[in-house]
Design a protein that fits this description.
The structure is a single chain. About 35% of the residues lie in helices and about 15% in strands. The chain is built from 20 helices and 17 strands. The strands form 3 sheets. Strands 10, 11, 12, 13, 14, 15, 16 and 17 form an 8-stranded mixed sheet that branches. It has a 7-stranded mixed sheet with strand order 3-4-5-6-7-8-9, sandwiched between helices.
């Protein structure tokens, strides 16, 4: 590498023994110590801006970077002149930074995993996006596509380069198309947003990755704070457009401290390595494989005791039962949680991410309640808002894109019934989730671990295999809701629970569930480890049944499974056994 880009907060041209001030807390800092700490302030943990060289050294394995297009520089397409001609501005930026443009790209490795990486330099004309900026990013994406490698985009930009007019604007479409081609090919794209990332970058390539990471306190947005204040005279809230607030708004998957960036990226690369599935190349079975008689879940209703529905409901609602995140910690060898719906919020009532199950990457989604009152409140008692279902659908897309099986955990009294949820399209959000899940071209397995209430539960349970724990239930409505509507009295909930036939045995007789997972004698809450083992074995067995199926057969299997309900010729009567 030939570029050594200057740091605006700190002049690095002098003696390393000099001191500087942190731009965030104004503490006096010793440069040599700062360098050892990856230019993170030891007093307030503010990450100072990195040069491209520093950034590549931080992220990539030593000596692995191979640069491409090092001599490609901007073009003066408009003859633009403000206080000085555009070519003069370019020449000054090149002399000051040692770089030809605001992007450097090439190949390298992170923890021995190969990838393509493109890094933006804010020091070169504010990291602005000009025609050649977009071209360099596009070439990086094309190389990733040609070599079937993951792409990492590290962004720092003030937005479009005005001196190139509409040519700059067209880079938003150009780069977005390239990311779209990577999506279609099932190739991973990761964004790392650094301070600052604004304008045209955030309206295109900077936020279109499959996974979006950000450095702490990075400023991220479309319109800058100054533009907002001058345009609409609006007061801005505290921490506006900071990485942490962007994560809360559902735009960022994870805010990652600088010392964790390389291992975090290494994990993501490993979880996505070799997962692209191309089942259409195999002969398509027309029927699912026979289910094993040794499956670690019960498939014959007569093997189950008849337990009063009220007792099942009471046990299913026990707040000491394992939650989705508890199962993720027990069942999967590794789990990386992803956040947000990329449009409005990160609903805490639904969690999801990528898990490693017996060496196989899977996408995991589940309702999340909690065990203590503060967490139950924070997670809305497992009742999702529309943003929760949008998050789930985004993760379903991720599963299909990378050929990963989808595993879901269902435990909700139902979708949140509030005014705000209705105004934001709760019904549509659930419907779209059910539709997307029904058409996924990967194996889908769902486990009802506690409450399975109404469409809010079915949104995560439209599966090839639907399993249920021995003390869980699945129902069109809560017993209390049914009693209120049909009996005129919520106090008749026990009667409603019995009439609704919501116990695992009832559901198995009706053919609604495919198997019942035994629990410890005192219930799942009495022995998390044993329950986790049982659920893990059931999931492994279910996925083993589904794995031989091609994408077309998986969709057909799911279609056949759900179209039989209500068909007089195919519906299993309750008295069959």
């Amino acid at each position: 590498m030939t570029s050594v880009l200057s740091r605006p907060e700190t002049d690095r041209s002098g003696d390393e023994n000099q001191w500087t001030k942190c731009p965030a807390c104004t503490s006096l800092l010793y440069l040599r110590r700062l360098k050892r700490q990856d230019w993170v302030c030891p007093e307030c943990t503010h990450p100072l801006r990195l040069t491209v060289d520093d950034r590549l050294a931080l992220l990539l394995d030593p000596g692995s970077f191979r640069r491409f297009d090092a001599d490609l520089g901007p073009m003066d397409v408009l003859g633009f002149t403000d206080s000085k001609p555009y070519p003069q501005r370019i020449a000054e930026a090149q002399k000051r930074t040692g770089a030809q443009e605001s992007v450097i790209w090439g190949t390298g490795t992170i923890e021995d995993m190969p990838l393509v990486v493109a890094v933006m330099a804010f020091e070169f004309m504010g990291g602005s996006v000009g025609g050649v900026t977009g071209e360099l990013i596009a070439r990086a994406a094309r190389h990733a596509l040609a070599e079937r490698l993951p792409l990492l985009l590290v962004t720092a930009s003030g937005g479009a380069r005005m001196q190139e007019g509409a040519i700059s604007l067209m880079q938003l479409a150009k780069t977005s198309q390239e990311i779209g081609r990577l999506r279609e090919a099932g190739l991973l794209c990761v964004n790392l947003l650094t301070d600052p990332t604004y304008g045209g970058a955030t309206a295109s390539f900077a936020v279109l990755g499959d996974i979006v990471l950000a450095e702490p306190s990075a400023r991220i947005g479309f319109a800058g704070p100054g533009v907002i204040k001058q345009t609409i005279r609006q007061d801005l809230p505290k921490n506006f457009q900071r990485a942490e607030s962007l994560q809360a708004c559902g735009m960022v998957d994870e805010v990652v401290p600088r010392d964790r960036l390389r291992p975090t990226l290494g994990r993501l690369l490993r979880l996505h390595s070799g997962t692209t599935r191309t089942p259409e190349t195999k002969e398509t079975p027309e029927t699912p494989p026979a289910r094993s008689h040794e499956a670690p879940y019960l498939t014959d209703p007569i093997t189950l005791d008849r337990v009063p529905a009220t007792e099942v409901v009471r046990t299913a609602r026990n707040i000491d039962r394992p939650t989705t995140l508890d199962y993720c910690g027990q069942i999967f060898d590794e789990f990386f949680e992803l956040h947000g719906d990329r449009s409005s919020a990160d609903d805490k009532a639904i969690v999801g991410g990528i898990g490693l199950l017996a060496g196989r990457p899977v996408v995991v989604i589940g309702h999340q309640k909690g065990h203590e009152t503060p967490e139950l409140i924070r997670r809305n008692f497992g009742m999702p808002q529309p943003s929760g279902y949008h998050k789930a659908r985004r993760l379903m897309d991720h599963a299909e894109r990378f050929g990963m099986p989808l595993v879901t955990f269902v435990d909700t009294p139902g979708a949140y019934p509030g005014v705000e949820a209705e105004e934001r399209g709760q019904g549509t959000a659930i419907a779209e989730c059910i539709l997307r899940m029904s058409r996924l071209r990967v194996p889908v397995l769902s486990v009802v671990t506690g409450e399975g209430g109404s469409g809010g539960a079915l949104a995560l349970a439209t599966a090839n295999r639907l399993l249920i724990l021995q003390n869980a239930y699945f129902s069109v409505i809560s017993p209390e809701g049914c009693a209120t509507i049909l009996f005129g009295n919520a106090g008749q909930a026990d009667r409603a629970a019995t009439e609704l036939r919501i116990t695992p045995r009832d559901l198995l007789e009706l053919g609604v569930v495919d198997g019942v997972i035994p629990e410890p004698s005192q219930g799942a809450h009495s022995d998390w480890a044993a329950t986790g083992t049982a659920v893990r074995e059931a999931i492994l067995a279910g996925l083993a049944e589904l794995s031989p199926l091609t994408a077309d057969s998986l969709v057909k299997d799911r279609y056949s499974r759900h179209t039989r309900f209500g068909d007089p010729d195919r519906q299993l009567p309750i008295g069959r056994w």
